[in-house]
Amino acid sequence: MQETILILNFGSQYDQLIARRVRENNVFCRVVPYNINPRKIREISPKGIIFTGSPASTYKSNIKPKSEIFDLGIPILGICYGMQVIAHMLKGKVSKAKKREYGNTPVSILRNEKLFAGIPKKFICWMSHGDYVAKMPCGFERIASTGNTDIAAMADKKRNIWAVQFHPEVIHTRHGKQLFRNFLYKICGCSGDWTMGSLIKESIADIRASAKGGRVLLGLSGGVDSSVCAVLIHKAIGKKLTCIFVDNGLLRKNEGKRVQDVFRRNFRLNLRYVNASRRFLKKLKGVLDPERKRKIIGIEFIRVFEAEAKKLGKAEYLAQGTLYPDVIESRSALGGPSARIKTHHNVGGLPEKMKLKLIEPLKYLFKDEVRKLGLELGMPEEIIWRQPFPGPGLAVRVIGEVTKERLDILREVDRLVVIAMKKAGLYRKLWQSFAVLLPVKSVGVMGDERTYENAAALRMVTSEDAMTADWARVPYTILAELSNQIINEVKGVNRVVYDISSKPPSTIEWE
Ligand code: XMP
User: Is the CB of residue 229 less than 8 Å from the CB of residue 319?
Assistant: First the structure.
């Protein structure tokens, strides 16, 4: 049975970071809501449990785990609020601090416990708290302190409950990585059985068990997630998988051909290529509003996919490349829907409409893990390192009306941008680098001729997860060369501008 660590999320913004720290140590983990039923925990039988931080206060809120969790005999590590909730529930005392402690803080280890093995007696940790543990529960010892916080870490070795007030998951805490390693290996007794090889083996067994010999459909977009998903499922069930690639006419230059080459020829995947460009462009005629564009494309995709699937006969399953961050984000511990900024296009709505059961083999993986998995499956780097591309494609990068002519202009600009970024060694470093065709014409001069053509904007951003992004400081020499090349080579563009806005308050895509 796979060694698993459970991370109970109390509403921390760092839950995913904690998960990353655990997985970096070759131990599988899952993030679950803080009030998970102890019966469910027993079923999962984790090697250890981690409590995250939270913006809440223990003495004001009801955000607490079920009390039986302390009787399961499973090692626990509490972080920040996670420590305070342990103190509060086991009859210690949590109080409001006179002074908040925030940022880099020197911490002293008072007892050389397993949790601190291999860590110097004094190191810098990262603090962010307004409450503190004023009195430890019975059975606990103080094992670290800072100038401001007497009990910066505590432990009940008998019950195997450990807690730290600081955040070992953020990189500002030196030796945080070692602290997690100590908890996982020395306290929980993990052996580190989570590797890409073992993951592939298990996923294949899981996919076979879920599909039960039935037919599986998959909407292949050519992006990393759906591509890795396709190759993994194909490895598990071969010809029982059919991939449908919908060419909506909003793709980049040669994209359709490239996807067919890779998947049909190299991987011998059962692939249906549907050229629906005309259909999409007809529906988009005269549409200027970004949200309407997105809705039309989403609905049309479902229609085309459904029609194509019908031709294939009965299928029971739909596979999707859903990733772990999507699964976690959709269940925020403290509730409260986040505002919808843009309607993201995916295959949502298809499973219910077509009465298909879902298969989501990547739903416990982060993006970089999916990349590693893809490489392990022998997929080409060109696919694995492809930058994110939005579902509605170039339709949200042609500002204003989407026409074939404008798409063709943008495709040419986009091609030059990709080549330039790859040549400069920036393609992988940047989260995204692309062009936007503006609904603006301006005057230029080429040779002795006056021109009156389109303006294109270059958008290059760095980001960790697309939730926030910064405009990339691409060297002027590279921008200059690219701008020249675009204006000289792409007919219809006589001006290039560089977008220097960050997200928030802007977004990455323009529409
Ligand atoms: P924004 O523009 O909201 O984009 O800052 C954040 C990230 O999401 C990508 N994006 C999409 N991806 N379907 C997708 O699969 C969509 O409809 C969609 N819209 C935006 C965008 O490229 C960026 O990486």
Answer: yes
